[in-house]
Amino acid sequence: MQKKIVTRCLSAAGVFVIIAFAGVASSVAAIPDNDNFANATIISALPFSDSGNLTGTAMEPGEPQFCNFLTQTVWYRLTPTTNKTIKVKLTGSDDSANFSVYQTGGVGAFGLNFLGCAGGSTGSFQLDISAGSTYYIQAGSAVFGAHLQIGIDEILPPSNDNFAAATPIQAIPFIDIVDLTRATVESLEPVQPTPFDTIVASAWYAVSPAVSQSLTVSAANTCCTSPFIAVFTGGSLPTLTRVNASSSPGQKVTFRADAGTTYFIQLGRAFMSLSAVMTFRVESTPPPVADFAYFPSDASVFDLVNFFDHSSDPGQVGFQPPAWNFGDGTQATGAFPTHRYATDGDYTVTLVATTLDGRTASASHVISVRTHDVAITKLAVPNAAGAGQTRHLTVGVSNNRDVQLVQVTLFKSVPGGFDGFQLVGTLTQQVASVTSGNRTTSFDFSYTITDEDAVAGKVTFKAVAAIQGARDAQPADNTAIAPPTKVNP
After folding, report:
1. Domain residue limits at 98
2. Which pTM was predicted?
3. DSSP-derived 3-state class of residue 147
C-alpha cells in the first residue's frame, strides 16, 4: 500500500490540500470559499489582510469587471458601523492582477455600483465609506493560479491632529511624514491662511529652539492638494498670534525663532482630497547669497559708476536695504547706488546683505579705476595742391594720463558714399603723457592728390584717434576735420 503524506497551506480564503504518494506526486487545490460573490469573505475588523493563489477559481456568469480582463476572482465584503476612510492595497504575482471596489444599490445581476479600481503587480485605492452601507471588493487576475495578497487599512486622523497634541520638535533638522486625509480642524483654530483659502484639515507641531536662529518650514504633497503653513506664538488656540504664514499653497515659511520661545506650526490643507500625505520639514535657514554687479566695468574718474544688488535669499523673506562700502572711505545704502571715484586706483567694494529676519552675507569685488584720455590737438594740411603732388599731413595727439598706445586713422573726402569719407591710412605709436613735458605727439602722413580730387576742386581730411585696449573717458575730442584743401587742375 502506498504511503500518503498530506500538508496544508492557506489560499486566498480557503485551503490547499497537497497529496503525495510514494513515487507518484499530484496536487488538488481546494477552491476558496469566497470564489463566488454570494460567499464573499466578511471583513469584521480593520486592519484586514489575506493572501493565497487563485487556483480553481472562476468568473461567475454576469460578474462585473471594470479595471482589467479577468478570468479568476475572489470576493470580500465590508459593512462599516461608522464612517471611515480606507485604503485597499493589492500585491499580485503578475501585472494583470487588480481589484475593484463596489457599493450595493446598483443595477444588474449583482446589484453593484462601481467605485474604483487599481491594477498591476502592485496597486492601491483609497475611498471614504459610510456607516451602514455594504461594500464589495473583487480581486482577481487573468493568469491561472496567480498569487495575490490584499490588505485593507483604516486611515485615522494623525496623532497631532489637535493643537494640544502638537508633535514636539526635539532637534533641527526635523522631518515627518503625516497623513491629513482624516485630519480635522478644531473650534477656534485659525483656518484662513489667505483671503481666498480656508483650511479644512490640519496637524500641529511645536518647537522651542535652544538658541535663536532662523527656521524654514516646508511641506510637500505628491498628489492632489498643496499644503499651507502658519507659525504662531501663544499657549492656546484663543491666544495664538501669527508670526508668519504661507501666502500661496506650497510656499515655504521662514521665521526668526528666539531661544526659549515656543512656536506652534500649523500644517493644513485648504480642500478635501483623496490623498493628503505630506512630507513636513523644519530646517535651519541657509544664509543669503550676496552678490552685485556694476557698470561701467572700466570706470574712469569721469564716470558715475552704477551698482546693482543681485543678492538672493533661499528663505524668501526679503532684505533690508543693503549696505555698501566703496573702498575709498565712502558708504551708501540702497539696492542701486551710484559713486564717482576721485582718483585712479584699485578699490575693494563690499556689499553687506541682511535679510528681514537678521541673516547676513557679504560680497566684495575689486574695481580698477583707470582714466584714459587723449585728444587730437592739431591737424595740419596744405592750403592748396595740384593733382599728382604729394603733400605731408600731421596729426598732433596729446595725452593727459599715463602713456597710451594710440592709433590714428586718416580719411579724405569723396563725393557721395555712406559718410562722405574714404580711408587714407593708419599709424599706431606710443603717446607720452603731458606731465612728462611732451605736449603733443605727431603722427605724420603723406598723401598724393588724385585726379578725382582735382575734379572735385577740393579735398577735406579727417583724423580719428583711438586708444588701443582701453576706453577713452572723453571721446568727443578724438576726431578732427581740417579746412578743405584747394586742388588745382
Report:
1. 4-154
2. 0.68
3. strand
